[in-house]
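Moderator note: this is an archived Q&A kept for reference. The question asked for a predicted structure of one protein chain; the sequence and the answer are reproduced below.
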Amino acid sequence: MWATYLVVVKTDALGRVARPIGVLTDRDLVLTLLARDVIPSAVSVGDVMTANPVTIRDSDSIEDALQKMREHGVRRMPVVGERGDLMGVLSTDGILRVLAWDTEDLVTTNAVERMVEGTRGV
């Protein structure tokens, strides 16, 4: 199942830096449009989006990101660079994938080490 997550940005005067000003989620759509029986063509993204989204800097740690996600009750966050420009989106699913890969690497390393020790007679 795919979840809707659209980062709404505003560019600077030169059109170079795109800063997140909101996010549009499937939850926003359900709560604003479906629950209130609103005609979608009668509203704009700005009317429905969650303004001032919680963001994380690209230099922050995964631990910082998880803490922020817990504090704000979000599963996804826009990642911003030093100038506040959008770099990407970090999700709990993405973090879990990285942690799973790291765990798999550790298991493989341990298995190879045991194999090497066995061939050396250690």
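Archived answer notes: The chain has one domain: 5-120.
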